[in-house]
Design brief:
The chain is mainly α. It has one domain. It is 39% helix and 8% strand. A two-stranded antiparallel sheet has the order 1-2. A two-stranded antiparallel sheet has the order 3-4. A hairpin with a 5-residue loop joins strand 3 and strand 4. Helix 1 packs across helix 2 and helix 6 runs antiparallel to helix 7. The protein is elongated, with a radius of gyration of 18 Å. The two termini are 24 Å apart.
């Protein structure tokens, strides 16, 4: 996960809520409204799934609108844009695994970047009980996802001229340069799983400065 900063709801959703103040998300029949929500979420997420950070598009086969606080838990927030993110369509993972379960640590919290700790192997662990619970709910510790993260991390390392075999040699200055290169840029999607490498580097930098 990376922290998602929610902006204003798209006009299509605002207009729909204005016209249907007592209705819920499940009653939105206009596909254009749902699509506008997803596209707005993807811009905020720089083209990555809110949970696993794999690249996704606004196509229905790639992503869906996901309620961070499940619709059954809080029916008053089903059309609240600040409660909606875009999730991948991976079976039994992310939004498809979340369902109606409580999610104690979410990508809308600053702590999602500190209470989850990734490694170069692609593995992730929670540093708190709520982080571990969220990893379990979203099924973010599967061997297939670990492998995908590892491949993406290695690809980024090679791209930036810091191959895996040199990871232990990175100093503070190089890490800061890499973090700047991996930072979001307006109008551009992030590279696949880039927040995972950012998480690793930030924890390493913290250890060096601690």
């Amino acid at each position: 996960m990376r922290k998602i900063t929610k902006g204003e709801a798209p006009d299509e959703l605002k207009d729909w809520v204005k016209d249907h103040p007592s209705k819920r998300y499940s009653e939105i029949e206009d596909d254009a409204v749902r699509q506008a929500i997803r596209e707005a979420c993807l811009r905020e997420q720089y083209g990555l799934c809110a949970y696993c950070c794999k690249p996704i598009t606004a196509d229905n086969s790639s992503s869906h609108n996901e309620h961070v606080v499940a619709q059954r838990i809080d029916q008053n927030r089903t059309t609240d844009f600040t409660n909606i993110v875009a999730s991948c369509e991976t079976p039994n993972q992310c939004g498809k695994a979340h369902g109606h379960q409580p999610l104690p640590l979410t990508p809308l919290m600053d702590e999602c970047e500190t209470e989850l700790k990734f490694s170069y192997s692609g593995r992730v662990r929670g540093t708190t009980a709520r982080a571990e619970e969220s990893l379990d709910v979203l099924k973010l510790q599967s061997s297939s996802l670990n492998a995908a993260r590892k491949r993406a991390i290695e690809a980024l390392q090679y791209e930036f001229g810091t191959p895996p075999e040199e990871a232990a040699e990175l100093d503070t200055d190089i890490i800061k340069i890499l973090l700047a290169e991996l930072a979001p840029q307006e109008g551009r999607d992030l590279k696949p799983y880039a927040p995972v490498l950012v998480n690793i580097l930030e924890h390493e930098l913290e250890g060096m400065q601690g």
